[in-house]
Write a structure and sequence with these properties.
single chain, Nucleoside Triphosphate Pyrophosphohydrolase, three-stranded antiparallel sheet
């Protein structure tokens, strides 16, 4: 699984940060709590804002939907919906990502862009989506200025993937992603440029219910936005 710089991110050594930060409790991840936090955001600073640039590509505005599917009784088991991008795409092929893409001229807002892309990529209709708010923008090494749009999603939605863009969609328990013990920090020096990124490898029973494990390597911009979401919710714990 190589990227635009020609390396496999899974092979780069990693550490965990030394801060003794806690896993977020289920009470911090409930629908009502998340709604309250976005209405009363904490004073915080995102940990990750910009990656070192790769090439001279012109900046491009983009938006992604961070869809939190409210699984379980009364939505007490939230999961984050992610996609595996197809291998032939021109940017970030084969990587795990949120539904999203470029902001088109006809998109009145980044929220509309995120909703449009989610509908196009995984068939997620807006009637099943409740937008909570935005996280600070994240600039990728390929010059995409991404605005993450966080939303609650009804478990009654239906996924229909666009085979030209998405190999498959899957869900990861939000509790797993909001536990810093599952965040690995990688560092790689190439030609004097130090690149740092997070990964959050996740294994789950494969969707067809056979005994094999499905392994998902979440890393780069997607992991960075998840890490920022963790820091945002962690800051809100004191409110």
């Amino acid at each position: 699984m190589k990227n635009a710089l020609g390396f496999d991110p899974r092979e780069i050594p990693w550490t965990r940060q030394l801060q003794d930060w806690p896993a977020l409790p289920s009470s911090s991840l409930s629908a009502e709590r998340l709604k309250w936090i976005f209405k009363n955001p904490p004073d915080w600073t995102p940990e990750l804002k910009r990656e070192p640039l790769i090439g001279q590509r012109a900046p491009q505005a983009a938006a992604v939907l961070m869809p939190i599917v409210m699984r379980g009784e009364n939505g007490q088991d939230p999961h984050l919906l992610l996609t595996q991008r197809t291998q032939h795409l021109s940017s970030h092929p084969g990587q795990i990502a949120f539904p999203g893409g470029k902001v088109d001229p006809e998109d009145a807002t980044v929220e509309q862009a995120a909703l449009r892309e989610a509908q196009e990529e995984v068939g997620l209709e807006s009637e099943f989506v409740e937008i909570l708010g935005q996280l600070p923008s994240y600039v990728t090494g390929t010059s995409f200025n991404i605005t993450p749009v966080v939303a609650l999603v009804s478990p009654h939605h239906t996924i229909t993937t666009n085979v030209n863009e998405v190999e498959f969609a899957f869900e990861v328990p939000l509790s797993f992603l909001m536990n810093p013990q599952n965040h690995r920090l990688h560092e790689w020096d190439r030609d004097g440029v130090v690149r740092r990124w997070y990964s959050m490898p996740y294994s789950a029973t494969s969707p067809n219910k056979d005994p094999l494990q499905a392994d998902y390597f979440i890393w780069g911009a997607t992991a960075g936005m998840i890490r920022n979401f963790y820091r945002f919710l962690l800051a809100a714990n004191s409110l």
